[in-house]
Every structure is written in C-alpha cells, then in structure tokens.
Amino acid sequence: MPFFLRKITRPKWEPNGKLSEDVNSLQADVVSECLKTKGNTLSVWFTETNDWNGDQVKKILGALFSTMPGPDRADVLFIDEEKVKEKGIGVEDTQGKSPALDDINDLHKDFSELNWALMQDVADLILNELKDVKIKEDQNKALKHKGAAQTVYVQAKRYSEKNVKNLVKEQLALGNIIPDKLHERWKKHLGLDA
To answer: What does the pLDDT read at residue 194?
Structure first.
C-alpha cells in the first residue's frame, strides 16, 4: 500500500504536550510553520512502503534530511495514499530539490491545487495519524511493561539529531547523496569541509 512521507513540526500539533482535539483547535502556527505551501502546493515524498527500515524509505529520509541546513531533530510521518485520494487532494509529480540522486528526487510529489478546505483536510489527515500514533505508543509502553517482545507499528517517528546525521551519513556512503550539493553545515558535520 502506497504512502506519502512528510516532515512535520510535531510540537506545533501538541501545544503544552497535548495533541489538539480536532482541526478547529489547532494553533495557527501549524499552518504558518508546519504546513507551509508554495503556489498552493505542499511538499511530500511518495513511497511504496511504510517500513522505517526499508531501503526506499531510508533513501527518502536521507534526501529529506539532507535538505535541512544541518543535522537536527526531525519528526516525520506516513500519510496513507488512499486517504489522500478519499479527501480529493490532488497530487502532482514535482522533482525533488535535495542533494540526493535524481531517481530518489523523482519520488518527490506535491499535494496540489490546495485551498483552505483542502488544507483543513490535510491537517485532519495528519492530526488523525498523530492521534493513532499516540494510541499505539501507549500500547507499546503497556506491552513493554508486560515484557512483550512484539510492538505495535507506528506511522510517525522522531529522529534525534544523531539519528538524522547517521542516516544521511549512511545514504552518503551508499552513493545516494551527492556531497557537493550538501549545505556547508552538513559538510562540516560529515567531515567533508576539507
């Protein structure tokens, strides 16, 4: 089942550490800072899987993280393609502008022809994914407390600065990121500034 991957600013969705109840209670910063549009489009990445350890997802995350000025904490989540279609949100192919190889940048898409109503739908999709994540994280804590080895799969993930750096470093070593296209701060952190 296909998905879209989007980097979000999770604290904006959880003011005071509590997830907003519904789209109408979201803070304005969610739209102005987390769901910034350009030309009525919103940047996302397409993936055939929601496996955080899958090669395609790791390539996309490497591309996405390498567009940042340097390593920093990042929250990302999967949005089910079927749910996007159900909401009537348009999707168009748009070449990614990351330091990654072209075949990876080809996986970049835009939610397109967005208006206020569709932006509310996008926010609703993300908010519902985050609500589901909270439930699953609580289930995982309970399972861990009981000593269970198996966990419930979660659609969103927080990467520490160290994990972001390691993932980009891994993708760089695999030849999936072009070193010369990285921001200077990335080059410094990866020892490429010599």
So the answer is: 59
Letter string b/e over residues 21-58, b meaning 16 or more CB atoms within 10 A of that residue's CB: eebeebeeebbeebbeeeeebbbbbbbeebeeeeebbb
The one-letter amino acid code at 53 reads N
CB-CB contact of 112 with 90 (8 Å): yes
Task: Return the structure tokens found at 67.
Answer: 């567009």
pTM, two decimal places: 0.89
- The predicted structure's pLDDT at residue 131: 86
Eight-class DSSP state of 41: B
The domain limits of the chain are 3-189
d(CA 148, CA 101): 40
Q: Where is 3: in which H helix or E strand? A: strand 3-8
Who contacts 12 (Cβ-Cβ below 8 Å, separation ≥6)? 27, 29, 30, 33, 34
Q: Which residues of the chain have pLDDT under 50?
A: none
| 3-state class (DSSP) for residue 93 | strand
